[in-house]
TrEMBL record:
F(1)F(0) ATP synthase produces ATP from ADP in the presence of a proton or sodium gradient. F-type ATPases consist of two structural domains, F(1) containing the extramembraneous catalytic core and F(0) containing the membrane proton channel, linked together by a central stalk and a peripheral stalk. During catalysis, ATP synthesis in the catalytic domain of F(1) is coupled via a rotary mechanism of the central stalk subunits to proton translocation. It comes from Candidatus Giovannonibacteria bacterium RIFCSPLOWO2_01_FULL_46_13. This is ATP synthase subunit c. InterPro entries: ATP_synth_csu_bac/chlpt, ATP_synth_F0_csu, ATP_synth_F0_csu_DDCD_BS, ATP_synth_F0_csu_sf, ATPase_proteolipid_c-like_dom, F/V-ATP_Csub_sf. GO terms for molecular function: lipid binding; proton-transporting ATP synthase activity, rotational mechanism. Pfam families: ATP-synt_C. It is found in: Cell membrane.
Length: 77
């Protein structure tokens, strides 16, 4: 672990691993709860679907931020 290149590559792996797993879990939970709420109240489907798509976009943005950070660690630092 004395080599800084190895430490940098491990940091990139951790950032990408956490940056893909946690948003994927969040998107799954958002989709499951949205489908459950639409199943319970079908009349509210347009409002629930709009809020669900917006929340999924925010969760996906976190994964994109992790990608940007890992690319910065890979090519800039």
């Amino acid at each position: 672990m004395d080599n800084p290149e190895v430490v940098r590559l491990i940091a990139i792996a951790i950032v990408m691993g956490m940056g893909t797993v946690f948003p994927a879990i969040a998107i799954g939970k958002i989709g499951a709860k949205g489908a459950e709420s639409i199943g319970r109240n079908p009349e509210a489907a347009p409002k629930v679907q709009t809020a669900m798509i917006l929340a999924i976009a925010f969760a996906e943005a976190i994964a994109i931020y992790a990608l940007v950070i890992s690319l910065i660690l890979k090519f800039v630092v």
